Amino acid sequence: MSVDPTEIEEAEVELEEWLVEQAENGVPEIVLIGLLRDYADDIEQLGYVPRMWGESER
Fold first, then answer.
1. DSSP string covering the chain, please?
2. Within a domain: 12
3. Does any domain span residue 53?
4. Sequential pLDDT tens for the chain (58 residues)
5. What's the number of domains the chain is made of?
6. Residue 32 · residue 19 · CB < 8 Å
7. pLDDT value of residue 54
8. CA-CA distance, 40 to 14, in Å (whole number)?
9. Is residue 57 part of a domain?
10. Is residue 40 part of a domain?
11. Pick from 49, 31, 26: which is nearest to 39 by CA?
12. Are 8 and 24 in contact (CB under 8 A)?
């Protein structure tokens, strides 16, 4: 499966914008780092991004 580099860039920009928005709204950076690590660990363990996140996946 090939990935369009434009899609990667768009996803990166959207993630960066979301992170900035959260930080500007007072979410501590350490919390954002923890969230990113937890989700990355979950995705790595599952091998895919769940289309729905439920309590059993967290």
1. ----HHHHHHHHHHHHHHHHHHHHTT--HHHHHHHHHHHHHHHHHHTS--SS--TTT-
2. yes
3. no
4. 688 999 999 999 999 999 999 999 999 999 999 999 999 999 999 999 988 877 654 4
5. 1
6. yes
7. 72
8. 17
9. no
10. yes
11. 49
12. no
